[in-house]
Structure formats: C-alpha cells, structure tokens
What does this fold into?
Amino acid sequence: MSSNNQYQSGSATRLRRLIALLTVLQTKRIVNATDLATRFKVSTRTVYRDIKLLEEAGVPVFTEEGKGFSLVEGYKVPPLLFTESEAAAVITAEKLVAGNNDDSLVRNYRNAADKVKAVLRYAEKEKMNLLSERVKVYVNNDEKPSSSHLAALQQALTDYKLIKIQYCALKENEITERVVEPFALFYAANKWLLLAFCRLRKDYRFFRVDRFQSFHVLNERFEPHKMTISQYLNTLTEETIHPTG
It folds into this structure.
C-alpha cells in the first residue's frame, strides 16, 4: 500500500472513530478516557487527541477533572446515518424482541426500529426489508407468560418512583399488596423479574412481572439506592434469584 493510501486509510479510520465517539458522548452523561480507549481499542493518549479534534471542530465537550467527558447540556447534532451492518443488527434485534413476553417492550422497540429504517437510504431500505422477511425467530408461546408493564417499570426505575403492586406469590398463590422501590430488571427463562426493595418485607426481593395482579406507579419518589447492582449480585445465592415474595 502506498503512503498516500495508508494516510487515506488512517484518516478514514479516525473519522469513523470520531463519529462513533460523538455518538457515545451523546448517549451517556459522562464517560471516562479509559472506557473510551477500551471501546475503540486505542490508547488513552489517542482518546485525548480525538477529544481535542472534536473541540477544534466546534463540538462543546466538557471535561470534568477526574471523571471524564460529556457534551455541554442542550447541545445536539443531527442524527447520524446508520451503516448497513448497524441497521441489520437493529432489524435482527427487532425479530428477537418480537418474541419477548412483554407487549410494551415489543411495541416500543418496533417504533424505535421504524425510526432507524426511516433514516436509511433507499437502497439500504430495500436490503433491510429483504432481511426482515428472511430472518425468523421461533418461540414457544405456550411457555411464555405475558405482561405489559416493562415500559412503565423502566420509567419508574429511572425516575426513582415508588410502585404499588398486588403480587401473587409462587407459594400457595397468596396475593399481597406491596409498595416497592424498583432497583433492577432481569430477563431469564422467558420471564421478566423485578428486583426491588420491598417496604413490606423491609428487604430486597425478586418479583415475577407476569404475576402482578395490579400495578401502579406512585407520584412519591424514593432516595436512590447507594448500593450498585454489582455489589448486590455478589451477595446472591442460587436460591435468592427464585422469586417467592
């Protein structure tokens, strides 16, 4: 390869990385140089160079000492075009999500996928329509308990809102009313599980979402949990992850 071609190849690689870096900055409140270096398989020195290039191009990147980088609040850039491979990944994921047991997740993901398809060029749309027809995911609906609470649960979790549920426990089908503080969501064995601090039991509990008899998001907020999800998972035993209420 000639030196000119090498330069062009290197420039194209850097341009793709800068676009990807800008995308990451738009999707996260703050991100540190080490995480960016790992993600893009470059040195932290290269990350700092890339950040400087973005700043020189007029992108208002804010550097918080000891924490990382973020975009100045309110700054937006026009939506970036998806590559063909990225669009294909979205289409394939749409098929997987379509087999999920929560109606709200299926509906919201389908709407999001439509927005992705809307920004594709005509030729790419034709390919993605073909791919959509040729990718099939089969699920056993007989073994798939259903729910429609996931979207509201996600909102309550990120807004730190209490939720009130009538819950049918696995043991003896006992129904109890709970006010809980949502902490995390898990998907395993065709079931969505909510991990929450239960004010009735005064401890963390797993709840199967499909066993909610009623579900309401309250206006009252709770204090964010200081424990991280990793710290909680380190305390789990095999018995703990089976929700009993």
Summary: The mean pLDDT is 82.
